[in-house]
Amino acid sequence: MTRLNIVVLIALVCSSLYLVKVSYESRRLFAELDRAQAQALKLESEHDRLLVDARAQSTPLRVEKVARERLGMRSATPAVTEYVVVPVAAAPAPDVAELRR
């Protein structure tokens, strides 16, 4: 009878230690999951902020402003437009094979 009690006691101690280990692992994984969810929320909000920032950077007024200030560009007007005229004699006649391509 005492051998049976010792075996049951050893089984009880082993299962208790295993239960403590499993509960500790469960708490650790839950904390890690919570941190990962918080980081995902942070990354999602940063992604949304970057999308809004990208939309703000690509508005036509902003593009025109940057083109004027940084690149020194100006709007095309008839006064600054130069038209290139190709003389008729200099332009070769298109070949029929080239037209079919």
Automatic annotation (TrEMBL):
Coiled-coil spans in chain: 26-53
Top-rank lineage group of the source organism: Bacteria
UniProt keywords, alphabetically: Cell cycle, Cell division, Cell inner membrane, Cell membrane, Coiled coil, Membrane, Transmembrane, Transmembrane helix
Subcellular location: Cell inner membrane; Cell membrane
Record bears the keyword Transmembrane helix: yes
Membrane topology, as annotated: Single-pass type II membrane protein
GO terms (BP aspect): FtsZ-dependent cytokinesis
Keyword Metal-binding among UniProt keywords: no
GO cellular component: cell division site; plasma membrane
Classification via Pfam families: FtsL
InterPro entries per the UniProt record, alphabetical: Cell_div_FtsL
Function of the molecule: Essential cell division protein. May link together the upstream cell division proteins, which are predominantly cytoplasmic, with the downstream cell division proteins, which are predominantly periplasmic.
NCBIfam families linked: ftsL_broad (TIGR02209)
Quaternary context: Part of a complex composed of FtsB, FtsL and FtsQ.
Family: Belongs to the FtsL family.
HAMAP family named in the record: FtsL
Name recorded for this polypeptide: Cell division protein FtsL
Encoding gene (name): ftsL
